[in-house]
Amino acid sequence: MAFSVDHEHLYIMSEKQLTRMPVESCGQYETCSACLGSGDPHCGWCVLHNTCTRKERCERSSEPRRFASEMKQCVRLTVHPNNISVSQYNVLLVLETYNVPELSAGVNCTFEDLSEMDGLVVGNQIQCISPAAKEVPQIIMENGDHHIVQLQLKSKETGMTFASTSFVFYNCSVHNSCLSCVESPYRCHWCKYRHVCTHDPRSCSFQEGRVKLPEGYHTGWATDCAQDAPECSLPFRAATSLQP
């Protein structure tokens, strides 16, 4: 057994044949965590190229945060807000980035195949704009009240996606009862007299009022829904007692 001159291959000799094998097979790992979790000392994550490779094959790998050799150096991304209604358009989204190299060449924000736009880099934050009306996914009742997409960052330098996080579009209007509306995990409100579920409480007239599942220990919402539709049979929920 012997190494090649460039130390990229290993020669293994048996009684009948000589076999040449690569020292590493970094390319089989598709994510930073899989790459660095493989235990292969030859492999690291080339961040803006979004690939697992040897350090010498990663362009500008000596620059800060360009090449990750430890799991804690993998790129992380959070977004605020992380969900919006399908009837909200061009909303400013702020993405907090961790372990990302400088992005002087620019970055694009993409919502899978829905839309792509320029991102604005401000320190360790990237500002993106949510899709326009025609690009927002349709959500129908059969598929629930929300749709999850991947919000991705694409380097203009390499043309590669190097970070992503889940983003939710929700649709309150698919709920046709007070209970299903206020039990939604999203910001849905029930307009009491028009029997409409909406993300915008201002769309409920002041006179009619609205019902919204409140935070904390409170069960009055069930009573409100019962008053809104007294003919409905509502499940009983025991009130939670508060300890002083």
TrEMBL record:
Q: Which GO terms describe its biological process?
A: regulation of cell migration
Any one GO MF term held by the record is: semaphorin receptor activity
Alphabetized UniProt keyword annotations: Disulfide bond, Glycoprotein, Membrane
Q: Which GO CC annotations does the UniProt entry carry? A: plasma membrane; semaphorin receptor complex
**Entry annotated with the keyword Glycoprotein:** yes
Stored InterPro entries: Ig-like_fold, Plexin, Plexin_repeat, PSI, Semap_dom, TIG1_plexin, WD40/YVTN_repeat-like_dom_sf
- Where does this one sit in the cell? Membrane
Q: Which Pfam families match?
A: PSI (PF01437), PSI_PlexinA-B (PF24479), TIG_plexin (PF17960)
Give the protein's recorded name: ESF1 like protein
